[in-house]
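task queued by scheduler; priority normal; single chain, no ligands, no partner chains; default sampling; output format set to structure tokens
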Amino acid sequence: MIGKARKRGGLSQENISKILNTYPDLDANWWFRGTGGMILGETTEENSQIEWAKIIRSQQELLDFKQQEIDRMKLTVEELMK
């Protein structure tokens, strides 16, 4: 169908509907606009970057918390050594 459409210069609305109905996971926004992922629910690079930023931020918070605990424990040890 797509090969024939390329020869004719485009797909008809009927053929586009057939494709989208045959492949329900195909994202129509990707098909028409070229935005987002090809498959519905697929993570785009932009969304992926947002997720990485959240992961990095949470890891940094965890590291900061651990350092605070280490510092607190060092003080406790120093007090016990006196």
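post-processing summary
- Residues 1-42 form one domain.
- Residues 28 and 47 are 18 Å apart (CA to CA).
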